[in-house]
From TrEMBL, chain A:
The chain crosses the membrane at residues 12-31, 37-56, 77-99. It comes from the Bacteria. The keyword Membrane applies. This is Uncharacterized protein. It comes from Aquimarina muelleri.
From TrEMBL, chain B:
InterPro entries: AAA+_ATPase, ABC_transporter-like_ATP-bd, P-loop_NTPase. PROSITE patterns: ABC_TRANSPORTER_2. Keywords: ATP-binding, Nucleotide-binding. One of its GO terms (molecular function) is ATP hydrolysis activity. Gene3D superfamilies: P-loop containing nucleotide triphosphate hydrolases. Residues 4-222 form the ABC transporter domain. It comes from Aquimarina muelleri. This is ABC transporter ATP-binding protein. It comes from the Bacteria.
């Protein structure tokens, strides 16, 4: 885990993570309002990432060249975002269980 | 000396053959200019080498070692300057530089480059075209990659920045091999060692402006 976090400690990757989740978070929250908080948490680490990817592709597609020139492919970036979102979702799920 | 070799490059879109059996070699210390009318495949050629467009066939070797197209980006041997700006417009120049260079010494190389102090606090979206292209080239050129693919580095640039960019490219070629394409042929001829034109999907070596006329890239009175 330490190795993963160290490797991810990179401003460029955090920027991509944030840019994807700018689209993902509102989508997940809307789903949460309709179907409940638990669904919101599930969507955040699954379909929401797809929505984030499509939003990024639509509005910021050329910025992928930032990452390509840093040696990062789309697949490797999305894997990192997915892993981080899974960790966040798991923590949110634990908080949900405790509060409930 | 590092050598990039491209052989058997072919690319078609449907029935249209864009590039046919292109072979190309670029050594560190060389700047190679690629010419061709719009739609002849210059930009596609660079993207094929960079691996962001899939070729029908391509064989890439660096120092005689084959690199598969899917591994080019992760190998960090070839960098690519796209035609359109790729830097996040909402961020300031001083915030962009650490995205590419986590190390302070590497950041200083950019911050202390000529002209940069005059626009480092400006947002990327507010830079002039010349400042933006220069910044992009500084960033791409200071990465560790040995070979640079530059798509229209002189396009729409104000004259003062053209000279700055030419100086930068001549400095970079000491440690890198560069392939560039641009319609500003006079600027290109000033800095290149070798040139070619793409015509009818084929690569033809050229020497000077007369060849550009001969292969109908320019009219004789231009």
């Amino acid at each position: 885990m330490t190795i993963i976090i160290k490797r991810m400690y990179n401003k460029a990757i955090w920027k991509y993570f944030w840019d994807i989740n700018v689209f993902n978070i509102p989508f997940s929250l809307i789903i949460g309002l309709i179907s409940g908080l638990l669904w919101s948490i599930i969507i955040f680490s699954s379909l929401g990432i797809v929505i984030g990817y499509l939003g990024y592709k639509t509005f910021k597609n050329n910025q992928y060249y930032v990452y390509y020139n840093l040696g990062l492919t789309k697949t490797s970036l999305l894997k990192k975002v997915w892993l981080l979102n899974m960790i966040i979702s798991f923590l949110l799920f634990l908080i949900y269980i405790i509060i409930r | 000396m590092d050598v990039l070799e491209i052989t058997n490059l072919n690319k078609s879109y449907g029935k249209k053959i864009l590039l046919k059996n292109i072979n190309l070699q670029c050594k560190v210390g060389e700047i190679i200019g690629a010419f061709g009318r719009n739609g002849t495949g210059k930009s596609t050629l660079l993207k094929l080498i960079f691996g962001t467009v899939k070729a029908d066939s391509i064989h890439i070797k660096i120092n005689s070692k084959t690199i598969f197209p899917n591994d080019i980006i992760s190998s960090k041997k070839i960098a690519y300057l796209p035609q359109d700006t790729f830097l996040p417009k909402e961020q300031k120049v001083r915030e962009i530089i650490p995205l590419f260079f986590p190390n302070g010494e590497d950041q200083d190389k950019i911050f202390y480059s000529p002209q940069v102090s005059s626009f480092e606090k400006t947002k990327v979206g507010k830079l002039s075209l010349g400042q933006l292209r220069y910044l992009e080239l500084l960033i791409i050129g200071n990465l560790s990659h040995t070979f640079l693919m530059l798509d229209e580095p002189f396009s729409m640039i104000e004259p003062i920045y053209k000279d700055v960019i030419k100086d930068l490219l001549l400095k970079l070629k000491k440690s890198k091999g560069i392939i560039l394409t641009d319609h500003y042929y006079n600027d290109v001829f000033e800095i290149t060692n070798k040139n070619f034109i793409i015509r009818d999907a084929k690569k033809i070596e050229i020497v000077d402006k007369a060849d550009l006329i001969k292969y109908e890239y320019l009219k004789s009175n231009q």
